[in-house]
């Protein structure tokens, strides 16, 4: 059994990690870390865990945890993981960081978009960007995985094959993304109260959202050159789910068939990517609770553009599920272990 | 492997049966019955099943199905199962009926509350009321199980031990129940449109709801005498979940401890019933997607009454989950097989 | 024009007061008080007010405000109004307190249920309980009005005529109430985050909710004797609305007609109380945004009880609307001024 | 008093017309038309109207209605108005058509996108496109007004000034729109059931939505040339509201100030258009129940594009409110009569 520690187990992503790992045959959670709830019964905070989890929340002493754990998940605010990571720790345990600390290779871009000083940039080169479908081999050998963001995973997976195949003009990409409210975290903020979110939709972080440079870096690898995108996130009155509606100019005449072929080429055997039937639009409800990403696209001959659509569950494939998928790869387990439950509807 | 047929697989309870059975190690679905969608791809109706279920919907020819299936679930409107059941069918296959056709022992009461003529009353005596926690032994031997209703399960499980122990005055019971909208079914009705249900709460079927006599019959067994209750259902703008808030006069001086002891006595080892810690109120979110029933109660010394509370997921323990639990019992499998997933939050 | 000051104008009730008073022909708001947002533009907090309200939030200096205002609304936490009220203030201005400070005549009961020391009990005798339909004459002459609570208004209006006419057994009353989430206030609490409230229903404050003694006192007046009730509030995933489902034993044989007659007798000409047609259940959506209370009841001959139902908008008739209705009475204006807008659906 | 008839008064737009006209000083509704509910009490269908509207629903005999009404609103399915309109009718009464029948000047485009034969194309040239902010003078003189669509109004108002001023490259426009569910109508369809819409977001009608050519025609007038856009509508789990997030390439170097100046130039004195403060994003909750359109835009120097955002209430400014605004213009009333209520939050 893999011994797992979670720092930040009482956020929405942390709690989802717990839910998924409870259904994982080869993992056992030995540390429910929570700075806010240290000393409290985990199941008192999350009543779904009553009679299932008997543990008490522990603090975030990652050094002590490293002595016991085979792998540590940090589901913590930006900057935490970078501030505690060191060589000794990495020599004892693997780390899967769900924050953004090691996602961006250029530390200046990280510091600029996040407004933080990076405390351990020396580990950035080693960190593997944990987008399993594209970095599988590197992840298998990694000590430190930077688990991608939710918007990011949804956006990159949808555009990557099309850029890789040269079907799009790289600088024309516009991503209009819509997220359920669990993506806003479990902090007590007026803006996230029920009555403020319910019966409303809004864009936020327009032209300044921190997932922008992460998407640009990864799609730049796909395109083989730097690119700039527009990324607009929106808050939707629902618990879970991200829907990406993306737009790009086609590189000359490109047909729906060529688009499908590109997806088939790279994702034909992927267990968690479902290329939908032609004309079927992804919907967040169909992936809820699961690690699936549903993708489709449609060429517009009138404007010579393509509309790209993708949907995932922001706290599964967009956070905890992908983290478990990374863990499976890092420990040589079947990649799908613990992740094959059917999406729950309604 | 148990060969399972589902008649009515495209309603909410039917689809949940599919989801649960896909995670069941000893069962395989061989018939996705749907009168409305015969001939259509199942995954075209429920996109969550895409790449998971490849089957085409079949009609509701239960006679043909009986040749192949070890067990048939009928998740159909009232009257259907009663109209097709016969001795030959029951000699070939087991039947778990999710409708009300065989739940009520007095056929006159059934016909009066449901406004239907019962087409096969001869099977009523044989049918076992599939409330596993109370009828486990009979279910194990049954050919025909009448799977309890959602409101009913939630209400009966909460009151049964207290009546059995004589702690309550039987005729004082008032049940105020609140249900998610999946309980209203998947039929195209104006009343169940998003804009009609959202931002609203209402009572309905006041003093006339069909689950009333079912609850009265079962609680009558607990009390050892006939009783009459008030049962008021309400429609809540959420997908899943039933919350029962019940009230009853105490039989003399009864303490919180005596109430707890009664629950412990009957449910202490039950896998799916969670007696919450004192002062913790059941919430539907903590059981979502699971087969759990959360129960608690609180004595009011000011009015000499008790407030009883219980929560379950109406399409799991209130329908499909309980049906699978019944199947497990009927086939000698571990009762919890396929039903132990952690509730999903948020 | 009546000069109005609002202390606590940035809570949900305070903001609704602003919305209603903007449509009132005889009132003008001269003070947008808000301790949390002092110095900020009101319309920066509530974007609906952009280009409508140009004012800056002021502090809660009620003494200064009393120099300018004809009436002050205190939409503030319990204890605030009691801590600032004095004779000089009341000699200069009228006060409508939306908190509970002056609702309960027995200060010991107030202090016990609210866990607060009352700082100005000398004004309790003078304060008029602002339930317009029952205390109209006293309100007209009042300097200090205690505006009733939301659950309270909905409960009392539904039961009062039936008790007054002696149709019910006073100690048998059980009130099962359901509230939209704006009733929980605009404070930043994890429990009221979107993802915690959405897709959930729960009871809370079971047997201990502070509105209990307020309802008991008022219904005691109706019954002509002290009484004890059970009151169970529930939180519903919707913005606005309260639904009360109440239960009581009938006093001998009572018919639906006698119940209707009692309502007609007291409410036949009330502008804001709508007695629904027989068998029509109140729904919160039909009163949304309005000052209406919809009421109906149904006798159960099987159990010799009555089910009483009522619905209102918790921040209109349950708070701000009733406060304006009180103001209208206190200033000799038509009682309905500013309050006759049609409920908004959907 | 203007005598008003409504054909289609029991849809969401029709009911909103009723709500708005009840608050209008110069109009009285004399005909509540409803094919589905002919003969039924209007207030039995919409409980909010109880004790406010006493009328019985009438059929859709527009010829008879024309004898009595000064103006007829047709809130009916596509094709109805075109099939009943004739010269005699227009000689007796004015018509404001909320359907698409007369919105598009090129009848071939209408027939192609709507899949309908137009039954009275002879009135298309006469019909005035009822976007008050741009066609005010023509509306004042019109007998027949084609009331714009909801997505359309939101999109056109946001882009029109920028195109008119030559700030954008016309063929680069992409409109990503999000709508509340009342936009999907009140028909009984499985797709619009609560459990199908709740906890979900999806795109629909991708590249084929009927509002596309309407937007293209109007924006073509602004640009002074034909243009093609991409328009992608999405369904959001909320009752009301449309949010448009639009994208376009800037025509050379354009600053935020130039964008603001363009909006100020055309909308500076508009009563219903609110240009938000810099960096404030429109949110649907702030316009709910009102006739306001909130607009803002932000230049992206990184990609040389602009993000344009606008929000309105789809059944007010997107349907019934705009229709009343048109009526006010056609009858020489103050344009804002009956339309100045403050948006309702939460």
Helix content of chain A: 25-40%
The level 1 CATH classification of the largest domain in chain A is Alpha Beta
Mean pLDDT of chain A: 98
Q: What oligomeric assembly is this protein in?
A: homotetramer
User: Compute the gyration radius of chain A: what is it?
Assistant: 20 Å
Beta-strand content bin of chain A? 15-25%
Walk me through what this model shows:
- The structure is a homotetramer of 346-residue chains.
- By secondary structure, chain A is of the alpha/beta class.
- Chain A has two domains: 125 residues, Rossmann fold; 163 residues, Dihydrodipicolinate Reductase, domain 2 (2-Layer Sandwich).
- In chain A, 32% of the residues lie in helices and 19% in strands.
- Chain A contains twelve helices and 13 strands.
- In chain A, the strands form two sheets. Chain A has a seven-stranded mixed β-sheet.
- In chain A, α1 crosses α12 and α8 runs parallel beside α10.
- The longest helix of chain A is centred in the middle third of the chain and has 15 residues.
Question: Which helices and strands occur, and which strands form pairs?
Answer:
4 copies of one chain form a homotetramer.
Chain A: E1 2-7, H1 12-22, E2 27-33, H2 42-45, H3 62-68, E3 71-74, H4 80-84, H5 87-92, E4 94-97, H6 107-114, E5 128-129, H7 132-141, E6 144-146, H8 150-164, E7 174-179, H9 194-197, E8 202-203, H10 211-223, E9 230-235, E10 242-249, H11 256-267, E11 273-275, E12 293-300, E13 305-312, H12 316-330
Parallel strand pairs in A: 1-2, 1-3, 3-4, 4-6, 5-6, 7-9, 11-12
Antiparallel strand pairs in A: 7-10, 8-9, 10-13, 12-13
């Amino acid at each position: 059994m893999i011994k797992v520690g979670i720092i930040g187990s009482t956020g929405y992503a942390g709690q989802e990690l717990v839910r998924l790992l409870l259904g994982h045959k080869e993992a056992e959670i030995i540390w429910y870390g929570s700075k806010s709830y240290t000393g409290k019964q985990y199941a008192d905070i999350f009543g779904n865990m009553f009679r299932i989890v008997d543990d008490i929340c522990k603090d975030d002493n990652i050094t002590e945890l490293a002595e016991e754990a085979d792998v540590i998940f940090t589901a913590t605010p930006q900057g935490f993981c970078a501030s505690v990571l060191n060589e000794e720790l990495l020599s004892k345990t693997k780390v899967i960081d769900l924050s953004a600390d090691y996602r961006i290779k250029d530390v200046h871009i990280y510091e600029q978009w996040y407004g933080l000083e990076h405390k351990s940039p020396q580990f950035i080169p080693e960190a593997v960007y944990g987008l399993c479908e594209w970095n599988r081999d590197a992840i298998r050998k990694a000590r430190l995985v930077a688990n991608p963001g939710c918007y990011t995973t949804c956006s990159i997976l949808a555009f990557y094959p099309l850029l890789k195949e040269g079907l799009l003009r790289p600088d024309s990409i516009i991503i209009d993304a819509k997220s359920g409210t669990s993506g806003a975290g479990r902090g007590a903020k007026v803006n996230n109260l029920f009555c403020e979110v319910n019966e409303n939709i809004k864009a936020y972080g327009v032209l300044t959202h921190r997932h922008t440079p992460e998407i640009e870096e990864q799609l730049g690898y796909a395109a083989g050159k730097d690119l700039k995108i527009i990324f607009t996130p929106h808050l939707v009155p629902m618990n879970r789910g991200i829907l990406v509606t993306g737009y790009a100019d086609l590189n000359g005449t490109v047909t729906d068939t060529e688009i499908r072929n590109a997806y088939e080429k790279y994702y034909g055997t992927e267990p968690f990517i479902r290329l939908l039937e032609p004309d079927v639009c992804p919907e967040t409800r169909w992936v809820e609770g699961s690690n699936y990403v549903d993708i489709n696209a449609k060429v517009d001959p009138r404007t010579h553009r393509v509309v790209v659509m993708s949907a995932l569950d922001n706290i599964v494939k967009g956070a905890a599920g992908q983290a478990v998928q990374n863990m499976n790869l890092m420990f040589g387990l079947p990649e799908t272990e613990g992740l094959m439950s059917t999406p729950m509807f309604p």
